[in-house]
TrEMBL record:
This is Glycoside hydrolase family 3 N-terminal domain-containing protein. Gene3D superfamilies: 3.40.630.30, Glycoside hydrolase family 3 C-terminal domain, Glycoside hydrolase, family 3, N-terminal domain. The keyword Oxidoreductase does not apply. It comes from the Eukaryota. Residues 655-727 form the N-acetyltransferase domain. It holds the Pfam family Acetyltransf_1. Belongs to the glycosyl hydrolase 3 family. One of its GO terms (biological process) is carbohydrate metabolic process. Residues 16-356 form the Glycoside hydrolase family 3 N-terminal domain. One of its GO terms (molecular function) is hydrolase activity, hydrolyzing O-glycosyl compounds. Keywords: Glycoprotein, Glycosidase, Hydrolase. Signal peptide: none annotated.
Amino acid sequence: MATNGDVPPLWDESRQLGQLFMMGFDGTSVTDQVRTLIEKYHVGSILLKAQNLKCATPYNLMLYACFVEIVSAEQATQLVLELQTLARRSGHPVPLLIALDQENGGVNSLYDEVYIRQFPSAMGIAASGSKKLAKEIARATAQELNSCGINWILGPVLDVLTNARNQPLGVRSLGDDPHEVSAYGVECIRGYQEGGVATCGKHFPSYGNLEFFGVPDDVPTITESLENMSQSALVPFRNAIAQGLDSMMVGGVAMTSSLLNVMHACLSEQIVRDLLRHEMRFEGVVVSECLEMEALSRNIGISGGTVMAFQAGCDLILTCRSMSVQEDAINGLKAGLDNGMIERHRVQESVQRILNMKAKYTSWEKAFSPPGIENLARLQPLHTSLSTTAYNKSITVVRDQKHFLPLSRVVKAEEELLLLTPLVKPLPASAIFHQMQHDVSSVPLLGRSPSVDANTSVMSGEQVFRELGRSLARHRNGKMSHTSYTANGVRPLHENLLNRAQGVIVVTADAGRNMYQNAFAKHISMLCKLAVGPDGRPKQKPCVVVAVSSPFDFAADPSIGTYVCTYDFTETALRALVQVLYGELNPTGVLPGSSSQKLQTSQNWQQWLVESFSEDRDSAALDVLIAQCQNDSSAQAVLLKNIHSGTFLLRDPDVEEAHFVVRNSSTKELFGFCTTYYSKSSGVGHVGAIIVDPARRQLSIGHSLHDRAIRALLQKKGAAKFQLGVRFPHVFLGIPKLGTIEYKKLRQWFAKLGWNTSLSSSVATMMIRDLSIWSVPEGLGQKLANPDVKFDLVYGNEYNDVMMEHLKRCARNDVRGIYQTAMSNKEGCGIIRAKKTTDQSILGSILVCRSESQIAKYIPSVYKQPGVACISSPVISTMYGDRKSLFQGLVLLGIKQFKKQGLRSVLLDYIREDATADGLKALGFTTANSFDEVSSEPMHWTMMPGT
């Protein structure tokens, strides 16, 4: 038995090959099929899945791998125990990986009305605005699975809905903002792992922007270039890898762009080996999409597809349910090994990765003694409360133009309320679904009508929202009518009920893909607007449209005046909805991602008089305004520490400054202040800061200042880019990530002003807080030593020409001014250079400064702070191969220089939070503050209304 994750030396080849497969089977107990897979073929991973998610089309198969229906926690625990026992008796040295889809919302495989809690969908959790809640829900979900012996969850979903309206993932995704998806995805990973299960990110490289060109059996296609995807779709996957994601599922989608032509991503070396393994440095287990996809099996064949997937770099090959297909896959891998297409060392590598993951999350002791029902019973009260809290926080009122909510205020108790709902299939993890299965199974097979399944489907469709109608009736204590609608549109029945009712609720479920729902809801909304009262005068009827799945049904359609989103239609979600409709619950959910910025609602805002900042007139008043903001309770107040009016006045000859104020000309008070900087050498215009009196926020002062700032930057000839955030003065590098709710509100505020926050870059400041206990990390100094490179520390203007040539050669005009300032100010400033030993050419440089230096005046956290120093503005030649090590070497010398001088701490004032940050953490740095740096082309602003 392997105790440390190493490949057991006595394993024969067939046992090793079995570890390279994850397979499913039909049935709720051990069958001959799974017995053969485990005993004969030594398959090391089993996938359990709800049986209703059938492998009928590639669409279903891609989005929901398929199979075993698990009807209760107790049955699931027993099944897993039987599978592990079978593996042990068959001579498996290590336990099985037991995998499951449990995404919550509408995609749950394990259902138990008593012991398994229902939590919101991924997008519903994002709508709650709480990453802490996301982690708690992930941990709770994992604890429930772990209690049943399941050790691997196929999640989280990390796809970014870059084309949200037309994508089948819907609310299974966290949203359309890559950084928000990334942040919530990381919290889910942490929660799952704390709950005791391995994680699996999906669906790499993305299912968030698929094009469907052919017939339904054809595979969907990604048409985006990898370059574009790296700025959006790949961001959550990259950050998940950095946070220790255990495994990654690579999708079966096609990819086509100018430099890419891939038939199936999981079969492509370019995607798996080059992009995922080498470029993104993923070292965990790579899982293929299910190879039973119709298009894949038809075009390539299972055995050939298996070999191609393994050659591409996949470690685990997934096949869904058919025994003949599974044997074909196993035989294909054997043939590939026998004929030399697959190298044996590759098998060893993949088996090792799988064993490492098994060693981390399972053992025979764990496999044979899962926490079980007793633990689920103990967790039930806590998880029930968590579920209720999560749903209560997720319900979102997108619009309520006529203030129809709560309904109790506009529909009297004696008046009739009408509920109109579509026919939809019950969610697999719902009481209605399991009741329906019971009803069907109770009909004797010999006497069953051929149409019984269709009739049952219609009945179940009506039943899905039956309890919603009953709940609405109970809460209002009045008359309630409820009927369904179909693709036949508004029928006489609907018109009659509508004429009788004094208020209407229309439910939609993915109206973007079921256009009859869209048309029906808009028709009913129009009829309500045209309604007349008993006296013959126009009297609009309250109409509330509720989207119970995708929030994009009417998010951007202001003709739907009152619009509510629940993100799924589980029983818990609909209970929370009723409370919101009747005013018993205050809805706090917010549309996730950048959706809010796209709402085409008419936002009226007050235009304030904005004047140019005058240093003589406004400096004192600006200091008062800054002091008020420093004493504010907001999270951003910490960034204004040590700030004064002079901080924002850069006085750099290469930079054109234009600052603006909103002020009270009578009292001389400043209500708001905004800075802009335009670099003549780089052609970049910056909105550097917007500061508003805390007592006067939400009065459009910030909006007016921002509008004036953009108009000022548009007047700059040669402007190539506008940027939100500026490096010097070093106050706001972008949108500050301080406080989850404040950060989200700030992102949405800037998004509404026109900035595309979904394409932001994450930047940060980093610190070593105590140099007295810092030492060079063991082995790092030797690792960074390079005989071909030597370093020096220089001061003064005599180095100006050679340094300007270095900056020009590296295309870094953006730091030209700060380098000139450093060289003209020997007191407390210097430049550390890395030069080629042979020809003395400069390979890289950084600035170093102490608190008394000229540069430090524009870095408030350093200026006049005894014992604090700063490292700034690294410039590394693009011609040098190992740029990361050269950068680390420069920074290391800077740290050593400051430690030698007896300084207390050192700040690195700007760094992009990518792979470079890992090298800095190895040096002892920790993140001090993070920001979203947002850029836009000037052309974008010329097309914005009002600019």
